[in-house]
Specification:
- The complex is a heterotrimer.
- Chain A is mainly α.
- In chain A, strand 1 and strand 2 form a beta hairpin.
- The longest helix of chain A has about 40 residues.
- Chain B is built from twelve helices and 13 strands.
- In chain B, helix 7 runs parallel beside helix 12.
- Chain B is globular and about 65 Å long.
- The longest helix of chain C is centred in the middle third of the chain and has 18 residues.
- The interface between A and B is large, with 68 and 77 residues.
């Protein structure tokens, strides 16, 4: 056997290391540049580049409008409040879903994810029906509180899944050490567990905030006229008033907010320290101490289930009676241009598979690149910049990106305006930050010395990854895949915006059914929403089931 | 593992597709550059015609097949967004459109698109009735670039059964809606978030002129409820829409009564108030810079054909512009059109939409 | 009455018994070491005492009170983990102050106590350090200070020194012992290292496969291991059984052996005839002695020459010889070489009788 070539030391070695990392992110970066940076800058330039120069006065004029101030303020506080609510409700639910052993735990996890995929139009209708029906006594309708509740409803899943998977793999020993030192369960939670979960909590909070700040359909539906966010304002300015200058100014504002948020979060250290050996505890039995968490979980489940139940009930009613007629029309009868709900579901699933693979592939590359230990400050800066860069698409209006496609990807060889790949790519970009944020902390938590040990035993980088990273990564990868799949299934904004060749996805068909007169169309839309929710839950349960089984098998072999 | 191979294969196929497409696009570009000097480049007529439209466009499959059969062209439909999205998309891609024909620009967005020079003149004949819906060009002659395809009216609808049960005469005019007798009975989508809502704002502008804001003040004072969209108003709040609906007056369409038929009583449970209507016309047009202008003209002509016009009510819930095609039975009996709907000059709409909406916002959120 | 008492404690994982029917008693102020190979269940036993594992059966009592319904944090114990388990988000001082903070100790008082404790463990001035910057030994000292901060009625130490290397471990063991004595702390320590156990503890319990094989004051356990495996685990180099043991006893005065057998094994052993366990230094080359044989292997170490000697009727035994020694002729000669015939003297304090019936 030949001795392994000695790695060049010093500068050359560092350069080759950096080169490797650059190569790793080159493809994701290229895609981000092509499908995000280029379109957004194209749109902003179209709105603000007047006669060859930047229209500073125009931007100032737009940003000085009192309405813009109101909109900005509402965006910030409603997103902040919804983020806080999602965290407050999400953490106890994460505990119940991931740290307690009880029958139906997996089902509960899937149920919590359902709102995440429901098209916002449907959720809007469901919330409105709740408020007009069972909750009419509250006397609130289309108020800010309802918007915050709806945003929370959508985003609990993000917190539950991100924090839950971190909690699941949390080393139990620091908590035990604290308990052995006399810390009560609540003290352990406050002083040990929450600080340990901080990276996951902050990561999910920042993502939730971005999701809330760019929420579109649900704010339009529930906010009506009184409440608008920067996102809905951009939509109205662009598509209704055709005021590209104001829309571009607001897009810039959005970018600014998002960048500030991401920079702010970056200052709080998000990377967990590598631990040599984690000893995660198996989920425990339910005890009396879990009562507070359980009761919050029940409240959260009620918040999640009430609108979903409204949908189910709505789907089972026809002409004032209980009936399955709405389900019978899923395969045909009530259709949109010859496309039945089942056709659309197949399209949705196909697109979702593509989007999932794209986002997993890209996300893995980015996660590996940002989680490799950095030696110098510059490397660290580059690393966190990359991390933030890939989160940007979450925070920028789909309208801006969608129109940007039209004006920037319009010349050969990049005439991609109507390419079928656009929809999966757009969805993958939305899912990417979630994937990166699920994988990166796990990768960062792996002790480098394990890789070094594998390398010293003669494993090439791929083999080293296979033996060191893959086993740790499998579970988070499954979680990320479920997430990406769900994002793709439920994505409506960008999807409805992008041109397609007669192949609408299910959320789009639901939206169209809702816009057509006739009780059957309405009922079918409800049934289709229930179907979408059911399929998503089933896919997520299946992914976790497969993963659960292979994990047990692996443990058995060890 | 099976899934991963599949996914990878699909991905690889997609990547190949992108590369292939790029190559084809470059080749096509080269071809058109070569053929530029030769105006009679007939040997390479594209075999495809692309229709760009909004989300609600529906063409029954058999009609699409018939078009392809008779014209020898492949029809590709690219539907996305609403009428506003479509208009803006066309304006942004002016000169380098993503298709050959656009359908779905309505009279509220028409002059915006015309002003941006999005459309080329249509070469072909208009059938009976269609010409009546044409716009007027600034020089006073009929506008030939936008071809009327369908029309419908946005009208106040009432639940007649509710009024009968409550022994109250239903309202008939716009002014009636501000009558305390009808307090808290109206629900309608807002003008800023819904094209239907905008149509009603235009109705009031057409009816009251500069006094429209006072009318809205009175309307809101009489307990009108605003929702974000039409489906929201109709299916959640309207008594004939959702089971929990509590308001018997809603903003909807003149065709809506055809969808609330009571088979036993042989009547509709709702009625449109024909004095409260605003006419919406949807147009099609050949796009400037279309790759296949000849095919585009054929497609527009096809949209005006008897078979497409006759299919409009059941596929898109609108009335044909042709007067010589039969309506579905329910429609001819219950979907009654106003004889003299309200109308606002499209040029004025384009010019003042922003200002009107801002003023309306202030009145309604006061 | 003993402070800690275990009564038939059994802990199972998925039906496999990790700890089986263990009964132990630990008097106040004493240190008990539980010695056993890895995987013998000693850590599980410790965690069960802390309340971190559920008992399948049996009882854990402290001061006579059953702890079954007392959760970990109300037991008033403190546990020190193998790798310290310092909280990485807290400074050294905040780590040490942690138990005090839990008890809402006034800030000034807590600060005083923290600096006392850091002095005690030999880390004065380390208050503001980040745990990540500490060496392994420093980390364990901080962990000890933190464990002592709450004045636990029982200190549980899980392999407290095994993450450290040789000399440091020895030094720390001595210091730990001194600190435990100075503070009068009742402690239980599990370890797989007999040296560590010997330097820390008053009492010793040997565990194997979930069971306590032998328990008693450390010296007596040491002198009379209950069976061959225990003897080997306690650091005895070789155990002579059956005929070899009989021959050995015939040649070495029996009284000397008897004398060391007091306070012997408590639990039942299976061996039918007494066996003899020998430490490596139990036999040494002398001018004369009760045993003699042929050197089959000699290996020089810095201090002594380690020999293996073949003795007729006994077999191979270990022995030591000085590096140089003054021979009978008065000349300094090197240690014996392979093939040399040597006499061996016996140090009876360095051997033990393993027997079921000492009477």
């Amino acid at each position: 056997m030949n001795p392994a070539p000695v790695r060049p030391a010093g500068l050359a070695g560092r350069l080759s290391l950096t080169a490797g990392r650059v190569a790793l992110v080159a493809i994701p970066l290229a895609i981000l540049a092509l499908f995000f940076v280029l379109p957004v800058s194209g749109m902003v330039a179209r709105g603000l580049w007047v006669e060859g120069r930047f229209d500073v006065v125009g931007v100032q004029e737009v940003l000085a409008r009192p309405r813009v101030h109101r909109v900005l303020w509402f965006t910030l506080w409603s997103s902040g409040a919804a983020t806080a609510c999602s965290i407050a409700l999400g953490i106890p639910v994460a505990y119940v879903c991931y740290r307690l052993a009880f029958p139906g735990r997996r089902v509960l996890r899937a149920v919590v994810l359902v709102p995440f995929v429901l098209p916002s139009v449907v959720v809007g209708v469901a919330f409105r029906q709740l408020l007009a029906g069972p909750l009419a006594f509250l006397g609130v309708d289309a108020s800010a509180a309802v918007i915050v509740a709806a945003l929370t409803f959508f985003n609990i899943a993000v917190v539950v899944r991100t924090v839950g998977s971190a909690w699941e793999s949390l080393d139990r020993r620091p908590g035990e050490a604290a308990a052995a030192l006399g810390a009560s369960p609540s003290q352990v939670l406050r002083t040990v567990t929450l600080p340990a979960l901080r990276p996951a909590i902050l990561a999910s909070a920042s993502v939730v905030f971005l999701f809330c700040a760019t929420a579109f359909g649900v704010v339009l539906m529930l906010g009506g006229l009184r409440y608008a966010t920067v996102e809905t304002e951009i939509y109205l300015l662009t598509t209704n008033l055709l005021d590209l200058r104001a829309a571009a100014a607001l897009s810039l504002l959005q970018l600014l907010i998002v960048t500030a948020l991401l920079l702010g979060v970056r200052r709080l250290d998000l990377t967990p320290t590598a631990t040599q050996e984690r000893a995660p505890a198996p989920p425990g039995r339910v005890s009396r101490n879990d009562l507070p968490a359980l009761s919050v979980a029940v409240v959260a489940a009620a918040l999640v289930m009430a609108p979903v139940l409204t949908l189910v009930v709505g789907s089972l009613r026809s002409s004032g009676e209980w009936s399955l007629v709405n389900y019978r029309t899923l395969t045909g009868g009530a259709e949109v241009g010859g496309i039945s709900v089942v056709n659309a579901l197949v399209t949705s699933l196909r697109v979702a598979v593509d989007a999932t693979w794209l986002s997993l592939g890209l996300g893995l590359a980015v996660a590996v690149a940002v989680s490799r230990p950095s030696r110098t400050r510059r490397e660290r800066t580059t690393r966190s910049l990359l991390d933030g860069l890939f989160a940007l698409p979450l925070g920028v209006s789909a309208v801006t990106v969608g129109f940007g496609f039209l004006i920037t990807l319009d010349q050969p060889p990049l005439d991609l305006r109507d390419h079928p790949l656009l929809v999966p790519v757009a969805q993958a970009l939305v899912a990417l930050p979630l994937v990166v944020r699920t994988l990166a902390p796990v990768l960062a938590g792996i002790d480098v010395r394990r890789r070094q040990a594998a390398a010293s035993l003669g494993a090439n980088p791929w083999q080293a990854s296979w033996v060191v990273e893959w086993p740790v990564l499998r579970r988070p990868l499954a979680a990320a895949a479920g997430f990406a799949f769900a994002v793709s299934l439920g994505e409506f904004g960008a999807t409805s915006f992008l041109a397609r060749d007669e192949r609408p996805t299910l959320p789009v068909v639901i939206f169209r059914l809702l816009g057509q007169p006739g009780e059957l169309n309405y009922g079918t839309a409800m049934a289709a929403a229930v179907l979408l929710a059911g399929v998503t839950a089933a896919v997520v349960v299946a992914v976790e089931q497969i993963e659960g089984r292979s994990a047990t098998r692996g443990a058995g072999l060890r | 593992m099976v899934r991963s191979t599949l996914g990878n294969a699909r991905l690889a196929r997609r990547v190949r597709m992108v590369l292939g497409l790029t190559l084809t696009a470059m080749l096509a570009g080269a071809c058109s550059a070569v053929g530029e000097g030769d105006s009679s480049a007939t040997e390479d007529v594209p075999a495809e015609v692309v229709l760009v439209t909004h989300e609600s466009f529906v063409l029954p499959e058999e009609l699409q097949a018939r078009f392809e059969e008779t014209s020898g062209l492949t029809l590709t439909v690219r539907a996305a967004g609403d009428a506003g999205t479509l208009t803006n998309k066309l304006v942004l891609t002016q000169g380098n459109p993503t298709g050959d024909v656009a359908f779905g620009i309505d009279n509220t967005f028409a002059t915006r698109a015309l002003g941006a020079d999005v459309f080329a003149p249509f070469v072909g004949d208009l059938p009976a009735g269609a010409a009546d819906y044409r716009l007027t060009a600034p020089d006073g002659r009929p506008e030939t670039r936008l071809v009327p395809i369908d029309q419908a009216n946005v009208c106040i609808n009432v639940d007649t059964t509710w009024f009968a049960r409550n022994k109250l005469a239903p309202p008939t005019t716009l002014t009636d809606l501000t009558d305390p007798a009808y307090r808290d009975l109206l629900v309608l989508p807002g003008a800023a978030t819904s094209s239907t809502g905008l149509a009603f704002l235009l109705t009031t502008i057409a009816a009251y002129g500069e006094g429209w804001e006072d009318y809205w003040v009175a309307l809101m004072a009489n307990g009108a409820r605003l929702t974000a969209g039409w489906s929201d108003a109709y299916y959640v709040d309207f008594t004939q829409g959702g089971e929990q609906g509590k308001r018997p007056i809603v903003l909807s369409y003149d065709s809506s009564p055809a969808f609330t038929i009571d088979e036993d009583a042989n009547s509709s449970r709702t009625a449109a108030l024909l004095e409260t209507c605003f006419q919406q016309v949807e147009y099609a047009g050949v796009l400037t810079g279309a790759a296949n202008p000849e095919g585009a003209n054929k497609l527009v002509s096809f949209l005006l054909s008897e078979e497409v016009q006759a299919a409009l009510p059941e596929s898109m819930y609108v009335f044909p512009v042709r007067t010589d095609v039969p309506l579905p039975e329910d429609w001819s009996r219950f979907a009654i059109q106003p004889t003299d709907p309200h109308w606002v000059d499209p040029a004025q709409i384009t010019e003042l939409r922003d200002e009107w909406l801002q003023r309306w916002n202030e009145v309604t959120t006061r | 009455m003993s402070a800690l008492a275990l009564d038939d404690v059994t802990v199972s994982y998925d039906g496999v018994r990790a700890v089986a029917e263990v009964s132990l008693a630990l008097p106040r102020g004493e240190v008990l070491a539980v010695l056993g190979p890895s995987g013998c269940g000693k850590s599980t036993l410790l965690r069960a005492i802390a309340g971190l594992e559920l008992l399948e059966s049996g009882r854990v009592l402290f001061d006579g009170a059953d702890l079954a319904r007392v959760p970990t944090y109300r037991r008033g114990f403190a546990m020190m983990f193998q790798d310290g388990q310092l909280f990485s988000h807290l400074s050294v001082a905040a780590n040490v102050a942690y138990p005090l903070r839990l008890r809402a100790t006034p800030r000034a008082q807590a600060a005083r106590r923290v600096s006392e404790l850091l002095d005690l463990v030999g880390l004065p001035g380390y208050d503001r350090r980040d745990p990540a910057t500490l060496s392994g030994g420093e980390r364990q000292r901080v962990a000890l200070a933190r464990a002592l901060a709450g004045d636990p009625r029982l200190l549980l130490l899980d392999e407290p020194l095994s993450a450290l290397d040789g000399p440091l471990r020895e030094r720390l063991a001595t210091e730990l012992r001194a600190i435990l004595q100075a503070t009068g702390t009742t402690a239980m320590c599990v370890t797989h290292d007999h040296d560590e156990a010997y330097s820390l503890a008053d009492r010793l319990a040997v565990m194997r496969a979930g069971r306590v094989i032998q328990e008693g004051p450390i010296a007596s356990v040491w002198r009379a291991p209950v069976d061959t495996e225990t003897a080997l685990f306690l650091g005895y180099a070789r155990v002579l059984a059956d005929k070899a043991a009989m021959t050995f006893r015939e040649r070495v005065p029996i009284d000397a052996l008897r004398a060391t057998g007091d306070g012997g094994p408590r639990s039942a052993a299976t061996r039918p005839a007494p066996a003899i366990a020998l430490r490596r230094s139990a036999l040494s080359v002398a001018d004369r002695g009760p045993l003699s044989g042929t050197v089959t292997s000699a290996r020089a170490t810095p201090e002594v020459v380690r020999l293996i000697v073949e003795i007729a009727g006994i077999g191979e035994v270990d022995a030591v010889a000085p590096l140089r020694r003054r021979g009978a002729s008065g000349v300094v000669e090197a240690g014996p070489a392979v093939g040399a015939e040597v006499h061996l003297a016996v140090d009876t304090t360095r051997l033990a009788v393993i027997s079921t019936s000492l009477d």
